[in-house]
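#onboarding

Welcome to the new folks! Below is a worked example of what a typical request in this channel looks like: someone posts a single protein sequence, and someone else replies with the predicted structure as tokens. Don't worry about understanding the tokens yet, we'll cover that in week two.

Example request:
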Amino acid sequence: MPEPIDFYFDYSSPYGYVAAHLIEPLAQRHIREVTWHPILLGPAMKLSGNTPMAGQPLKGAYMRQDVPRLCRRYRLPFTWPEPFPVATVAAVRATIWVGDRDPALAVRFAKALYRAYFGDGRNIGETEQVLAVAAETGLDAAALAAALQDPALKDRTRAAVDAALKLGVFGSPFFLVDEEPFWGVDRLPLMDEWLARGGW
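Example response:
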């Protein structure tokens, strides 16, 4: 089997939300699995000198028009959540904890968190909302709540973010295909062609 596609995403990224619905059908066309990597973009932005697009003049306004248009195109439920963006530390830690135990369930959980935020407008920056989504996904919310207080999980999350930075990940969504990087949901057609042709 070919190596999986590595999918890096931040839960505050609306483009990551769109990519989360598109990456698996693309991978299946090429007989690939997808490895989901929740990350925190704050350290990457600090390293690269970038700032959240929502707060940037011109770009922020464009994003406000572009994301709903993308979601209409792909028939994805969408609402601009308030507040936006949010700190997603609890969501990332929770997803990593689930993924260490059941990767397939972690993917379902990740999709549910994205849907809760960008589909339903729920503030997943709040730990209580993360735990509520976990319960709705069939997870043991009490066990997860306890795990979120564990220093070992905090260290595990920090190590995952550091590992992504070392690989050159700086945005969301970000993909690695056989060590070839692709940044942005708009690069999915290019990645599709790359896989079909074996690169160029």
